[in-house]
Write the structure tokens for this entry.
Amino acid sequence: MRKHLLASALFLAAQAPFTAALAQSADPAVLTPERVFANPSLAGPVARGVSLSPDGELVAFLRSREDDVDVLDLWAAPTGEGEPFKLIDARALVPDAGELSEAEKARRERMRISQRGVVEYFWDEQGRYILAPLEGDVFLAERAGGAVRRLTETDADEIDAKVSPKGNFVSWVRDQDLVVYDLAAGTEAPVTTDGDGLITWATAEFIAQEEMDRDTGYWWSPDERYIALQRTDESTVDIVPRLDITGGGASVIEQRYPRAGRPNAVVELYVQDRQSGQRIKVDLGENTDIYLARVNWSADGRTLYVQRQSRDQKRLDLLSVDPATGASRVIVTQRSDAWVPLTNDFRALEDGTFIWSSEETGWRHLYLYNREGRRLRAITRGAYPIKGLNGVNQTTGEVFFTASMRDGRELPIEQQMFRASLRRTVTPVAVTPEGGWWGASMNRTGTAYVGNYTDLNTPAQSGLYRADGTFVRWIEENRLDESHPYFPYVSRRGQVTFGELESHGETLVWQMTTPPGFDPTKTYPVVMQVYGGPSGGGVRRGWQSATNQLLTEAGYIVFRLDNRGEGDRSTAFKQALYLKMGQPEIEDQVLGANYLRSLSFVDDDRIAMMGWSYGGFMSLMAITEPRMGLAAAASGAPPTEWSLYDTHYTERYMSTPQANAEGYAASDVIPRLPNMTGRLLLMHGMADDNVILENSTRVIDALQSRSMPFELMLYPGQRHGVRGNERQLQQWRTYLDFFDRTIGERSRSSD
């Protein structure tokens, strides 16, 4: 109770006017859905995918076109003097973008890429070229002079294109085979030729793309002699017929979808020797029911490092592989009673040592190993998790990483970059200032980085910095001044307040945003926004989305609580949901709802929840939990029965349906539907290949069979997200109309 009262007092004390200077100089303007989903973007000139050239002299980044926020061009800027310039104009090179192949659509969906134009690009390690796949073809920009060369113009899509490490070749996957293009000769040659049907070469399988954060299926050795590449056989995977319903009709997709407890694709790894032309199979062990998690080369190209994860994900082995023979041996093993997480923290160093992370202490930390896998020392330690390895300066021995930490203790709502040492375990030193949310992309030598920063009063900014944190120049300052597209609406932003609640010995963080003109003597309805699932974590001291302001403009308090299981926190915090998804998360959200009702300015009877994907699942679980007492819930693309979802994600947290029947039954939404406490809005894309539409149709059928009223909005042609300004505008008009009728002004007039 003391914590509730203290949090209430802190909240009321924080209701001071927001940034007085900005508020006085801006004309008050109500933000509308029509403006949010229009051009130019209210986010301002945000740089995406920013990276430094290998020598650190040029910065490349993606920027939305002013005339179409959904199309990206490739820009570059010198790190010294000089203005940014457009390197690749997507519309100039490909004026009429055609239909992407089904494989490329699926790949982009897995990578959460919704734009068109230049959506990704790659430097060669010499810094001479930038490779940019564009609308299914491949373009190469020369850094010297800026000439753009078109390498392909074919009916098929070239996907996952790369420049080889020394810049002599370009490679891509076409029609399920790997192709190498010789830049000097201007000719291409196939590496594989039998990719067809259920056999695919050099492409990450569905599970790897969707759940393992691995988007590629082939890896060049540093000397360009070898290419490690995977072979995928999907013949073992169940066919799950999926209706792909568009506005022009419907087609049946015979999707190979590995559901929990069912067979996965068989993935093998090979090494192609480009000198001899031989292809050697890598020994991944006798058990083929494993996951190919990560593949990396040693700095000298003599060793291939492979991370092999067991099917139950409780064991992760690091294999040392001889690329000439394919022979392998296990040099490090990580184990867990729940699951061993996958990261991108492995880094092979020039002296033969390597860095890798582990959660064995209960927190994710970095360690240094020799080439035989013997641990030499801890690089980081303490009661906080590192978020990711950003870079290494092998000359000075400095190691750079991001973490949500201050004074050696976890601070989930902020993120900074820190510096540690390869040579001894030291107290990390902050490189970036505290107070907001930092992301960083470092060059290969660890001497400079691109810093991406945001806080409550600062939209996303990108700048170039030296490794010690010294500012060099802006890439996109994105200054919130009179010229910024969002500036007319800044004075009506709601006040954001943060707080904490305790649950089973764990600290939960929350944030609350109040409507403009907030009066604590009145009562307000609340929209609880939720994701709730693993790797979420939405409470942060960063720029708030424009859609949040649509809710506060409509008179709602917006509240978000990161429950146990959500975010990059301690092992204990994350594993609280193991084998029982939907139980501890809802218990914590009940705690959040009870806290809201303890506040004098919250209308107890007008609390709603909204969420998408796992948040959609949470919204359904919450509207059917009497202790939540929700008046309404908007559920988007929800997994409603976890045996319908894929293997790697679901089994990581729930084991298999055969081994954990009780846990799967408890997380099934259908038996809970008679307990609905308020009105339900259900949304789903009718071409969703991730959380397939069956998850929602079974809820539709169950509600109708029980004669229970609900509201439904389906999106023809849309996959796991709703794309494009027009459809998103319709989506948010629907949200606002639904909440207005259930917890808003119209709900009060009908009382």
About this structure: The longest helix spans residues 725-742. The longest strand covers residues 68-78. Confidence is low (pLDDT under 50) at residues 1-27.
